[in-house]
């Protein structure tokens, strides 16, 4: 009689081998020391495991290992924030989880108001002697995962078994500065939406500290002179290039260079980049190139002419109307921002 050997995938063999070792050692086995930097038995999150059909735990099944796979944002020293794929293992406290998983689904009443929450359960599998199960989580009266299961999962003594850095989410400079990695270029709008600004000398309360975030426009095809008067979906998005933080006299000097007035908000020349300047009482967008304009967002008291206010639904704006004005930066102020943020000219 011919004996047929069934080939077992590598990930399955590793899981079953790990479970066999744990089962042989008994429940008193504990993992000590720091989590390994490489997976010794599990490896990366096996996609075939996560695609396995959900099933109820049989009465005869007694897991000795739980494996959870997730994607998390993690801080990496000297490298900023990264999206990482993590594999965690737990070998203790599984009885509570199994009891919660074996509970029946709660019936859904005919008349019940449930919030559309959409609770997500982490991807996990349970491993026993020769068996790998992706458990079906019982639901409550709103069809959501039962809290007993979620609580049991959170309480497990998870240990990191493997981590793979997928992609950088935030550079070290972005993490240190607080600058977003991308920013809409608001100058790439129809300039008729803005108001010519008078000279606005900064008050003592606006003298810092100031955070300056510099951006380079990423698609020249979307960077239109005098703004873009078509769909807002065509607005240019700037990519973060550098930053600086200014305090005291340096901050006050920079604000003076950004406080000039203009007789018209329009500009017929494209610009390669822009910068945000923010701080106590300060919210500015500075055009780096083109005509070096400054976009100021201010709250104007009533009465304020409707054609100079962002809300044109009435003849006179009410108190506290938000107004977008276009002012002017000095060449020295723009050159200083370029230099301090290392924005290539």
Overview of the structural elements:
The chain is α+β, with helices and mostly antiparallel strands. The protein has helices spanning 10-25, 47-50, 94-101, 147-155, 172-177, 248-257, 331-341; strands at residues 65-76, 80-90, 123-128, 131-133, 159-170, 182-184, 195-196, 210-217, 237-246, 273-279, 282-288, 293-300, 321-328. The strands form 2 sheets. Strands 6-9-8-10-11-12-13-7 form an 8-stranded mixed β-sheet, sandwiched between helices. A 5-stranded antiparallel β-sheet has the order 4-3-1-2-5. The longest helix has 16 residues, at 10-25.
Supply the key terms.
alpha+beta; 7 helices; 345 residues; single chain; 2 domains; 8-stranded mixed β-sheet; disordered N terminus; 5-stranded antiparallel β-sheet; 13 strands
How many individual domains?
A: 2
Overall SS class: alpha+beta
Helix percent reads: 10-25%
> What spatial form do the alpha-carbon principal axes imply?
elongated
* Strand order, largest beta sheet: 6-9-8-10-11-12-13-7
Biggest sheet, in brief? 8 strands, mixed
The string of secondary-structure elements, in order, is HHEEHEEHEHEEEEHEEEEH
**Strand share of the residues?**
25-35%
Number of strands: 13
Overall pLDDT score = 76
Instruction: Return Rg in Å.
Output: 30 Å
């Amino acid at each position: 009689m011919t004996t047929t050997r069934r080939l077992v995938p590598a990930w399955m063999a590793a899981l079953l081998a790990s479970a066999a070792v744990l089962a042989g050692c008994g429940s008193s086995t504990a993992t000590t020391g720091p989590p390994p930097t490489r997976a010794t038995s599990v490896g990366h999150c096996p996609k075939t495991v996560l695609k396995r059909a959900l099933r109820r735990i049989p009465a005869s099944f007694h897991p000795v290992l739980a494996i959870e796979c997730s994607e998390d944002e993690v801080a990496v020293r000297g490298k900023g924030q990264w999206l990482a794929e993590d594999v965690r293992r737990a070998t203790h406290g599984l009885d509570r989880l199994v009891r919660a998983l074996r509970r029946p689904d709660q019936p859904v009443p005919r008349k019940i108001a449930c919030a559309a929450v959409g609770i997500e359960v982490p991807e996990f599998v349970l491993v026993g002697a020769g068996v790998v199960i992706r458990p079906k989580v019982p639901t409550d009266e709103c069809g959501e995962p039962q809290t007993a299961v979620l609580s049991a999962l959170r309480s497990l003594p998870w240990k990191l078994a493997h981590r793979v850095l997928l992609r950088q989410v935030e550079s070290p400079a972005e993490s240190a500065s607080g600058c977003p990695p991308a920013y809409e270029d608001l100058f790439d709008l129809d300039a008729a939406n803005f108001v010519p600004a008078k000279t606005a000398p900064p008050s003592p309360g606006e003298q810092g500290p100031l955070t300056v975030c510099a951006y380079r426009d990423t698609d020249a095809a979307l960077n239109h002179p005098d703004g873009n008067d078509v769909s807002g979906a065509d607005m240019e998005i700037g990519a973060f290039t550098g930053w600086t933080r200014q305090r005291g006299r340096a901050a006050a000097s920079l604000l003076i260079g950004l406080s000039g007035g203009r007789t018209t908000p329009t500009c017929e020349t494209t610009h390669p980049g822009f910068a945000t300047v923010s701080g106590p009482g300060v919210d500015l967008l500075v055009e780096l190139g083109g005509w070096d304009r400054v976009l100021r967002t201010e709250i104007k008291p009533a009465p304020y002419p409707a054609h100079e206010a962002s809300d044109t639904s009435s003849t006179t704006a009410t108190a506290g109307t938000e107004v977008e004005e276009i002012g002017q930066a000095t060449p020295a102020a723009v050159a200083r921002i370029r230099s301090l943020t290392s924005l290539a000219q």
